Amino acid sequence: MFRGTYADENGNITFDDEPLTMAVTAVAMAAHNNGGKVIVQVKRVVKAGSLDPKAVRVPGVLVDYVVPTDNPEMTKQTTDYIYNPDIIKSNIVKDVKQMDLPLDKKKVIARRAAFLFNPDTDHCVNFGIGQYPMYCAMVMKEEGLSDNIVTTVEAGTFGGTSLGGGSFGTAIAPQATIDEPYMFDFYNGGGLDATYLGLAEADQYGNLNVSKFGPKIAGTGGFVDITQYTPKIVFTGTFTAAGLKEEIKDGKLNIIQEGKVKKFVKHVQQITFSGKVAYDSNQEVWYVTERAVFKLVKGGIELLEIAPGIDLQKDILDQMEFKPIISDNLQEMDPRIFQEPVMNIKNDKK
């Protein structure tokens, strides 16, 4: 069962208004060839021969039932949008000021992560699921850093500004949309230059867990495929979780209420990403939070920067289950990160 936009009288299916095609051709073929049924919901049935053959993603011979409906709730593009032309058209010009990103912990993390972007090498970039990778994409757009790169999302989009939440997988003004399996072929073949992903739980060896928390199994998704062959990996997230409250004021980060859950632990509950394998593979790996920046080094992670207003012992070391390697040249994060104006870091990279 899946959804298209139009079906003709012969059951041929197009995806004109759908932001993603995922693996519908392969899934429909697998069901049909193994005695299953293929049921497709569409907005409208049109005359046979009226569809562009190259726009048909599922041939009618694979389709058993077509269910037309014009109910907006049944034809929503994502859980966020009933219909948004920006996520299916490439000729949309968006003013970055319309994004209205408030200066909060999410933007602080994304801004620091943006400093790791290298325009000379990072030509094709992936942004993972979650609010922090999404903010990385939006901040890079705000800073003008994404003008000369091609962004990708595992669901199949190339180009544009990646979205998160209920619209994850889509992008504003994408350049191209391909089937998801082909995107994973691209990732597994080493097509990416850099990726920005979420940081759920990290340990003293640089391992990361995004897949299992107590009895809850989130699964790995595309995380393993994306991280194994990408030269630069930037993990992004808050330093602690569950109840964390912070404010950015007078160019400093103030912790109002510390999170109850430590995210930097001695041993992750499940290794979704291996620090040792990454180090041995010469991958460049960063762990960016709102108050501290770490880098993967031999034997663990090294603390390189802390936010202005943060106490090293109380706000960082006491909130970790292990003591990281501390750089001899420990520095404060760039002050522009904690101020309202656009940072203009694009000029720094010229």
Characterization of the model:
The chain contains 7 helices and 28 strands. By secondary structure, it is of the alpha/beta class. The chain has a 10-stranded mixed sheet with strand order 13-10-9-8-14-19-25-26-27-28. A 4-stranded mixed sheet has the order 5-2-3-6. Strands 1-4-7 form a 3-stranded parallel sheet, with no helix packed on it. Helix 7 links the parallel strand 27 and strand 28 (325-332). The mean pLDDT is 94.
Outline the fold blueprint.
Layout: E1 2-3, E2 6-8, E3 13-14, H1 24-33, E4 39-42, E5 44-46, E6 56-58, E7 65-68, H2 105-114, E8 124-127, H3 131-142, E9 150-153, E10 157-158, E11 161-162, E12 171-172, E13 176-177, H4 180-188, E14 194-198, E15 201-203, E16 208-209, E17 212-213, E18 216-217, H5 223-228, E19 232-236, E20 240-241, E21 245-249, E22 252-257, E23 261-262, E24 264-265, H6 275-280, E25 284-288, E26 292-297, E27 300-306, H7 312-316, E28 325-332
Parallel strand pairs: 1-4, 2-5, 4-7, 8-9, 8-14, 14-19, 15-24, 19-25, 27-28
Antiparallel strand pairs: 2-3, 3-6, 9-10, 10-13, 11-12, 15-16, 17-18, 20-23, 21-22, 25-26, 26-27
Helix pairs in contact: 2-3
Query: How many distinct helices?
Result: 7
Write down the overall geometry.
elongated
Helical residue percent band = 10-25%
> What is the CA–CA distance across the termini?
50 Å
